[in-house]
Amino acid sequence: MKHAWGGFALACQFLTIIPFPSRWIPETIPSTFSMALRWFPVVGFLLGIGLVAMDRALEDLFAPVVLNLIILSLYVAVTGGLHQDGLADTVDALAGGTTPEHRLEIFRDSHIGALGVTGLVLSLGLRYAGLMALPGGMREFTLLCMPVVGRWSMVLGVWKSIYPRVKGLGASFIRNCSSVDVVIASLALAIMVGAFFGPMSAVLVLCVGSILVRAYVWWISRKIGGITGDILGSINEGIEIIFILCAPMFLFLV
Questions:
Q1: Is 153 in contact with 232 (CB distance < 8 Å)?
Q2: Considering the domain boundaries, does residue 18 fall inside one?
Q3: What integer best gives the mean pLDDT of the chain?
């Protein structure tokens, strides 16, 4: 029980800005990181509950065009902008790098380039447009499941991947992910998405999401020799955006 709680606390600490006392994570050993990965979709669901709660609390105070921007701002704030930073760094590295070594050097640069800013603005714009285009009755379900799908995609992304540096943010997760972790995270995703969108939608998300994530990991690994924490952030952003934009299709699968 203590081991499971330590994994949950570590997952929350990594994915959000919510502080956890160090005594709640007694040992950051390989098995703790492995356990944390199993909790990623659950942490995503808790984030989704928070988004829905804020959406309900503010829906009578703001017009939809304003409310969507507030919800997205809160979402970025509670996750510390970690995934947005990863996306911007990834765009800069892929656009500006000429060799794997050069691209990894750009990842280390704390500055953001023009193309990184462009990618960040476009990603937030697509999220906003996707929320605005959601049919009535799908908004809450989408807000609940979007963070779940994003966190699951990161678990799938680290599976059997290589970390191209000696150390760094996300290295311990990448090096300690097992097939059991992926299966448990995938089951959690299937249960949560299936509960709100139906079993056919859950199967579609698992199948299409798996193909997209693993294809991206294969492609990006050829570019930099593996994946980094920034790459995981870009995976989360990309899959969440696709989920929002494609959510109306689930109406035809119910």
A1: no
A2: no
A3: 89
What are the φ/ψ torsions at residue 251 (nearest 5 degrees)? -60, -30
Is 104 a member of any domain?
yes
- Nearest CA-CA partner of 26 in 48, 2, 46, 1: 2
Which pLDDT score, from 0 to 100, does residue 2 have? Answer: 59
Would the pTM count as exceeding 0.70? yes
Distances (CA, A) of 188 to 49, 75, 94, 192, 239: 15, 21, 32, 6, 17
Domain that holds residue 232: 40-245
Looking at the 3D structure of the chain, how many domains does it have? 1
CB 171 within 8 Å of CB 165: yes
- 207 found inside a domain: yes
User: Which tokens is 101 given?
Assistant: 């070594």
Residues 6+ positions from 145 with CB-CB distance below 8 Å: 45, 48, 192, 193, 196, 197, 243
Find the Cα–Cα–Cα–Cα dihedral 26, 38, 178, 204, rounded to 10°. Answer: -170
